[in-house]
Specification:
The structure holds 2 protein chains of 2 kinds. By secondary structure, chain A is mostly helical. Chain A has helices at about 1-35, 45-70, 75-90, 100-120, 125-145, 155-165, 180-210, 215-240, 245-265, 265-275, 275-280, 285-315, 325-335, 345-365, 370-395; strands spanning about 150-155, 315. The longest helix of chain A has about 35 residues, at about 1-35. Chain B has 2 domains: about 5-240, 3-Layer(aba) Sandwich (Rossmann fold); about 260-340 and about 425-505, Rossmann fold, CATH 3.40.50.300. Chain B starts with 5 loop residues before the first strand and ends with a helix. The chains are: A mainly alpha, B alpha/beta.
């Protein structure tokens, strides 16, 4: 027991920053659960919460990499709104299929990102200004696109399913667990097993190579905690209508971006460019190329965000995308990304986005006045960054 | 002698119209340590950046020959492929990345499309072992390493590319004497293993210890080549070529006698590191007198810089106790600004990080600490500002087109002079100089020394903090020696010599 406490203390000392956002999210959720008398944790609400986070979360992931390489992208909010409107116009007025509209929008988004990136790298315009210009221009473009029609209602069922639909259930076993979504349960359980398997395998490999690993007790508790949380959420979702397509997209995006940043050469180079651009250049890294790629990815994700939002509302509105960029940037900062460059994890920004949307969702549920909501969001953002800076300086 | 491994023929280079290299010829034989020396601004780093592809083919004139054959490098990658690795003067590690990530940055080991982390760590261990850095954990972040350890990581990084030629630009300027010593031993070892080494250094003693041959560069031209195996070479000879004149005395003579009139004293001065509670300075009592140059010597980690900084408004928030007595009055400096106002000035060893705003002009840097003196209503009197800056430019011989030039474009020695000018403009009574000549060349050093003498003759009290023993002995009227945070000795200059001072420093 004494041994365990010592391990726990060391673990908290070394990893408090890595896990602080998870703990904060947990605490916020617990508070809302208590205040709302359980409404907050109801299957319907959690399912909603996840879908509300989607379009901000993908932006927060893109913005993380942008901030890691010491830039900022303000244009993404209205770009997302504008691209959503393009999707709506393509499908409603020109009868494009959902798939072709999606591909075109993602392509346009990538081009818009490349444009921002070119302004920043080749013309050396500060990202703040270049993307502020984009912010204005895309806002205008959105108004222009919706000028004749106002809100464009989207009637394409396939498209609307992205923001409102759920993965199908297993068809042949209706008689067991009739009130649960079986495929969701299955996915959750398989994921939980895989996490245990790969964590053990990875730990084993690290020990074999003589690396420092977490003490066994702490490691097991961490694993237990992650799996318990995963299974709990799985059960809540399964009790409603299962995993939504938005959640699927969010998970795939997060997994791909985590993989790229953690495991690939490109990821290494992105963090090197952010951490010390001169050193990166002297190591033979093409800083301009990296910058372009990161901005292009941001544009791509703006397209994705636009699709998620338009499909969730089943329409393109004249105000779509308002404040998205700021929520995404706030999410990234709450997740611990550093403006000094080179620091920030994709997964943490996802959590940061969840913190933002959980606060909004929970306060709406409790009927908190909108003016007070903004003030609280502001305080939480400031507190998160203060915590981050304080723990960072302690590290030194 | 056979074909040189590397030959640069008639290489010229200009930066936006200003020519810095004038048809330089440079050759290096295989498996030797070749030293490239010259004053700051002589063009050494530029030459090496051409050789390593940082300035690609087309941006310079002339030819690079490798084993006799002309080659063209269009990028750093090209020169690396040809077997040339360079370690730049400014450490170029990414602080937030781990040691192994830094070592393989730009040359990641891949397994399929992903980075093979395990293999990289394994290989990093082997490389670190090779550079005698076996106590460096490859999985810690670069920012958590000491400067000398970072230097070893840089060398490991260079060696990871299996270079035939390793270029080191001023690798020892930030290292202590023992650390430099170890580095030189390492370089000799690498030579034995067949690596050809090009070493740029200001420390001529080191150069003479390891060099097989030496090229001297002056004002963008090759002025001398020595083969150390066949001819006698000494410091004087090299210096003569470096500066183009003979320097008979490294240190200028005192101009006036110091007065026996204390200006500043410390009484039982203690400095404690707040996080660890460790004493950085313990019970230090020193006296600084009018017109006197007082040397403060100590080995690395003795607490010299911490002592100096704690007297200057304590910018790093150490826990301090004890008294400062300035001109007979007990005083407290709350901030550096407060210290400057009361007449105490500290000039830092780290001019880039703490001393100067590089993107500002010479003029703006000089006036920054004392803008109040230039107030005209609520605006800054720019005409007066320029006049004063020009005055300093002339007095300190600051080599620049005019005072509007950005400090970032100046050489190290010139930047140091701007820093000194900045200090002088604040009209201090006490000047604390922390390593004022670190990393600058012999000629500029002499000018800085002359200036220190002048300041003393004007009646200012000077505390000269240095880790270079000859500098302390050559310049000081009186010497304090620090060891592990304590003042362990006080000597008059006539009583002092290297052995005695060292004995106090290691006590």
């Amino acid at each position: 027991m004494k041994e365990f406490l010592r391990h726990l203390k060391e673990f908290l000392k070394d990893h408090v920053r890595d896990y602080a956002m998870f703990i904060a999210l947990f605490a916020i959720m617990a508070v809302f659960a208590a205040l709302s008398g359980g409404d907050f944790l109801s299957p319907v609400n959690i399912s909603n919460l996840v879908d509300q986070t989607g379009y901000i979360a993908v932006l927060a992931i893109g913005e993380t990499l942008i901030i890691v390489i010491r830039h900022i992208d303000l244009s993404v909010g209205f770009l997302s709104g504008f691209l959503g409107a393009i999707a709506a116009i393509l499908m409603q007025f020109y009868h494009f299929s959902a798939l072709s509209a999606i591909i075109i929008v993602l392509g346009l988004g990538t081009l818009a990102g490349l444009l921002n990136g070119s302004l920043v790298t080749y013309l050396r315009i500060p990202a703040f200004v270049a993307t502020l210009a984009g912010w204005l221009a895309y806002r205008g473009a959105l108004l222009l696109a919706t000028k004749g029609s106002g809100t464009i209602i989207i009637t394409n069922k396939t498209f609307n399913a992205i923001g409102n639909g759920f993965i199908p259930d297993l068809p042949f076993i209706n008689n067991i667990l009739p009130n649960y979504h079986k495929l969701t349960l299955l996915v959750g359980i398989v994921a939980a097993v895989l996490i245990v398997y790969f964590s053990l395998k990875n730990r084993d490999q690290q020990i074999k190579r003589g690396f420092d690993v977490l003490p066994l007790d702490i490691f097991l508790i961490e694993l237990l905690f992650i799996d318990a949380l995963l299974l709990y959420i799985t059960f809540i979702l399964a009790a409603h209508r299962g995993i939504s397509w938005t959640l699927v997209i969010m998970i795939i995006t997060t997994v791909i971006y985590s993989f790229i940043t953690n495991r690939t050469v490109l990821g290494r180079h992105i963090y090197a460019v952010g951490g010390n651009p001169e050193a990166a250049a002297l190591s033979g890294i093409n800083v301009k190329k990296i910058t372009l790629i990161v901005f292009a990815s941001m544009g791509f994700l703006s397209g994705l965000s636009g699709i998620l939002f338009a499909s969730r509302l089943q329409s393109a509105t004249t105000t779509a995308g308002t404040l998205f960029e700021l929520y995404a940037i706030a999410g990234a900062y709450i997740g611990g990304v550093s403006a000094a460059g080179g620091v920030g994890k994709v997964i943490n920004s996802l959590i940061g986005a969840f913190v933002m949307s959980t606060l909004t969702n929970g306060m709406n549920l409790l009927g908190v006045d909108i003016s007070l909501q903004y003030i609280i969001l502001g305080i939480v953002l400031a507190a998160a960054v203060i915590f981050d800076v304080a723990t960072r300086s302690k590290e030194r | 002698m056979g074909t040189p491994l590397i030959e640069l023929v008639n290489v010229s280079k200009s930066f936006s119209g200003v020519q810095v290299l004038f048809g330089v010829n440079f050759k290096v034989q295989p498996r030797e340590i070749h030293c490239l020396v010259g004053e700051n601004g002589a063009g050494k780093s530029t030459l090496m950046k051409i050789l390593s592809g940082v300035y690609p083919y087309g941006e310079y004139e002339g030819e690079i020959r490798l084993e006799g054959y002309p080659v063209r490098f269009f990028s750093i990658k090209d020169s690396e492929k040809a077997g040339i690795s360079i370690i730049h003067q400014e450490l170029s590690l990414v602080p937030e990345m781990t040691v192994y990530e830094n070592i393989f940055l730009g040359n990641e080991i891949k397994k399929g499309s992903i980075v093979d982390t395990f293999e990289e760590i394994e290989r990093a261990r082997q490389l670190l072992l090779k550079v005698k850095g076996e106590n460096i954990n490859p999985t810690v972040k670069a920012k958590d390493l000491s400067v000398s350890m970072q230097q070893l990581v840089e060398i490991a990084k260079a060696l990871s590319k299996n270079p035939k030629v390793l270029i080191l630009d001023e690798p020892t300027s930030a290292l202590s004497e023992t650390e430099s010593e170890n580095l030189l031993i390492l370089l000799k070892g690498l030579k034995e293993q067949g690596v050809t080494i090009i070493l740029i250094s200001h420390r001529l003693k080191e150069v003479l210890k390891v060099a097989d041959s030496i090229t001297v560069l002056r004002d963008g031209q090759t002025v001398a080549y020595f083969n150390c195996k066949t001819e006698e070479v000494d410091e004087k000879k090299i210096i003569k070529h470096m500066v183009g004149r003979e320097i008979t005395n490294l240190y200028p003579m005192p101009i006036a006698e110091p007065l026996d009139e204390p200006i500043m004293e410390t009484k039982n001065w203690n400095v404690v590191e707040p996080n660890t509670g460790r004493y950085l300075v313990k019970d230090a009592n020193i006296v600084l007198k009018k017109g006197e140059i007082v040397g403060l010597f100590g080995l690395v980690g003795a607490g010299r810089t911490e002592f100096g900084l704690s007297l200057f408004g304590n910018p790093y928030g150490y826990i301090i106790s004890g008294d400062i007595i300035l001109k007979g009055r007990k005083v407290k400096f709350k901030t550096p600004e407060d210290a400057i106002k009361q007449g105490v000035l500290y000039l830092t060893e780290d001019r880039k990080e703490k001393g100067l705003i590089l993107i500002n002009s010479i003029k703006e840097n000089i006036s920054l600490a004392n803008l109040k003196a230039l107030k005209k209503g609520i605006t800054v009197d720019e005409a007066k500002e320029i006049e004063i800056a020009q005055g300093f430019q002339k007095r300190l011989n600051i080599k620049a087109r005019n005072v509007e030039v950005n400090v970032s474009t100046l050489s190290g020695g010139t930047q140091q002079k701007v820093l000194v000018a900045k200090g002088l403009f604040a009209e201090p009574d006490v000047i604390i100089l922390d390593e004022p000549t670190r990393g600058i060349d012999v000629g500029a050093k002499y000018e800085i020394y002359t200036l220190i003498r002048e300041l003393a003759s004007e009646g200012k009290a000077i505390l000269l903090i240095s880790s270079e023993l000859p500098e302390i002995l050559g310049m000081s009227d009186r010497i304090y020696i620090m060891s592990k945070g304590k003042i362990t000795g006080e000597l008059k200059s006539e009583e002092a010599n290297q052995e005695i001072v060292m004995a106090y420093a290691v006590s």
